[in-house]
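Hello,

I think I submitted the iron/sulfur cluster job twice by accident. Can you confirm which output corresponds to this input? Input:
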Amino acid sequence: MPAKTASSVPPWQSYQALYIHVPFCKTRCRYCDFASEAMEAGGPAAQVHMDTYVDDLVLQLRRAAKAGELAQLSTVYIGGGTPSYLGGRRLTELLYTLSLTLDLARIEELTLEANPDSLTPALVRDSFALGVDRYSLGVQSFNDRELAALGRPHDATQARAAIRLIGERPARLSIDLMCGIPEQNMTSWQASLAEATAPELEVSHISVYPLELHPATPLGRAAAAGEVALPDEDMVADMLAYAADYLSRQGFRHYEIASYAKPGQESRHNSAYWTGRPYLGLGRGAWSMRQRGLAAEVGAGTGGRTLLRERWCDGKLQESVVGAEAVAREDAMLGLRMAQGISVAAQPEPIRQVMSQQIARGLVVEEDGRYRLSRRGLFMANEVFASLL
Ligand code: SF4
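Support: Only one job matched these inputs. Its output is below.
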């Protein structure tokens, strides 16, 4: 990261969230376009490559701690790729370093992403002992045909076993579920949702999202060639609508476009992204966001007072958002992802005008002094966001 600013300019706000990226997976899923690479965990390449990568993360953590960048963190998220695929020894090295470089007592949430096939009893035991209090499990589906169509490295039996394993600890559990998968129909989607919400599994957070097809992936190419049968757009919309109704009946609150949580189980880390709080990303391809504004007036939901926001990745400045209105537009776009929406009073006039247009289209509602996406707007959110940018 760049040097600190001179004292004559407003200081950068402290990072509040830390993301650590682990870019390794057992195999590449057929739809994946994330920054990850498949690697044989026990093979000679991994011994060098994964060990070196974790050693480098340890150095980066120490440097960040020395620079005071970890002092105000309240959440940590170890994501990927497949962090559980690092194995117990490497993960322990990483978590142990975290425990030395930041004050775990002030960390409200430490999440570890995992795939069912690489989550072992020892890994859960050790990671929990070293501070992980939330697991995010890439389940995607409880149907083996669908999992095979996606090229996932696990089956439904392994997913159930991993959920039960986490359930043995007093840790929070989030799972991902995907709709729009080849081989999927409404009945199998309903079955996956029913299984995810079975009371004995104690899943407290579910992320629901539609399959995205990227042209450069095996599944994207197969779909373009007409070699796979996919649920059509209307069916995917029906699946998302069913999930919203069903999960709300099961006691989950739809608190963000793709996120459902039991009361108090919302992702605090992801909320930092959606409410304009600075975050530090470590590891290959991880993004950081820093910002500064008028002294004593900056912070989450500032309604346009932040003057400069920067995004960095791999040591390079990638994006600058300059000026209060540009930052406010971005804050509005992010804030509208959440059910709580954005404060009407905090919006500058140009954003209020955009919101009035979206209210007229039925995509936004104004109630209790806040703008929120309407139910229709939830499914057409990209149109609302585009109007803001
Ligand atoms: S586990 Fe996730 S990151 Fe890894 S290949 Fe599959 S979709 Fe990509």
